Amino acid sequence: MIENEELKYCVLGLTGMPGSGKGEISVIARELRIPVRSLGDVVRSHFNNICPDRNPMETGVFADEERNTHGKDVWARRLVDEVDELIRNGNGMVIIDGVRSGNEVDVFKEKWGDHLKVLCVHSSPATRYERLGSRGRNDDPDGIDDFKRRELRELGWGLGGVIGSADIILNNEGTMEELYLDARRLLEELME
After folding, report:
1. Could you tell me if residue 90 is inside a domain?
2. Spatial CB neighbours of 42, under 8 Å, sequence gap ≥ 6
3. Distance between CA atoms of residues 185 and 124, nearest Å
4. What pTM was computed for the model?
5. Under a CB-based contact definition with an 8 Å cutoff, are residues 108 and 96 in contact?
6. Is residue 5 situated within a structural domain?
7. Pick from 109, 107, 125: nearest CA to 117
8. Rounded alpha-carbon distances, angstroms, from residue 8 to 12, 90, 96, 118
9. Which domain holds residue 124?
10. Which residues pair with 94 in a beta bridge?
11. Tens-of-pLDDT digits for all 192 residues of the chain?
12. Residue 70 in domain
């Protein structure tokens, strides 16, 4: 727990379906010198360390296996100390990219209370499918059926509930320039 309760800070949890633009918000935040920590990076790092010979397309399956073995909040618990350290070092805002379940939100709320805000980046399924097809990450879906399976898997983790209870919704159906301006304005407001 942060020892100085009077400390002014915000932990911003980014949520949204795959391809909605969470990563772009993270890029903008880094430009504003806001530290970003990604739950997906935590998953990928553990996956690469524990199963280096496993197919990267199984990263989501691995994330699910870890949730089943260590609890639905495992990825959040593996990240809180690092975020706490960033706050203790004077960062007024820290972003957690990729919040996917109410269990993760619960861990973060217990740790930071009202200092936690959840931002949902929203885009339509058609827009997200197109983006994922051109993103080029090794765990991106291979066709529409794979896309639908991934959607259902992530919704099964409780992502829909997190999206539905988000404190802030940012619509991302426009251009990159529009997203950049909207996100930058929002982040600057939250840092005040």
Report:
1. yes
2. 75, 78, 79
3. 22
4. 0.84
5. yes
6. no
7. 109
8. 13, 9, 17, 17
9. 10-186
10. 11
11. 444 455 689 999 999 998 899 889 999 999 999 999 999 899 999 999 998 899 888 888 898 899 999 999 999 999 999 999 999 999 999 999 999 899 999 999 999 999 999 999 999 999 988 888 777 666 667 788 888 888 888 887 788 999 999 999 999 998 889 999 999 999 999 887
12. yes
Within a domain: 172: yes
Chain mean position to CA 63: 14
Owner of token pair 């960062």 = 91
Query: Could you tell me the strand order of the sheet in which 93-97 lies?
Result: 36-38, 93-97, 10-15, 116-122, 168-171
Burial of 91 (0-12, 13-18, 19+ CB in 10 A): middle
Position of tokens 């280096």? 52
Q: Is residue 104 within 8 Å of 74, Cβ to Cβ?
A: no
Question: Cα dihedral sign for 105, 108, 109, 114?
Answer: negative
Q: Supply 183's token pair.
A: 């996100």
DSSP single-letter state for residue 172: -
Domain count, the chain: 1
Count of Cβ atoms closer than 10 Å to residue 66 Cβ: 18
The residue type at 3:
E
> What CATH number has the domain bearing residue 154?
3.40.50.300
Strand partners, 13: 96, 118
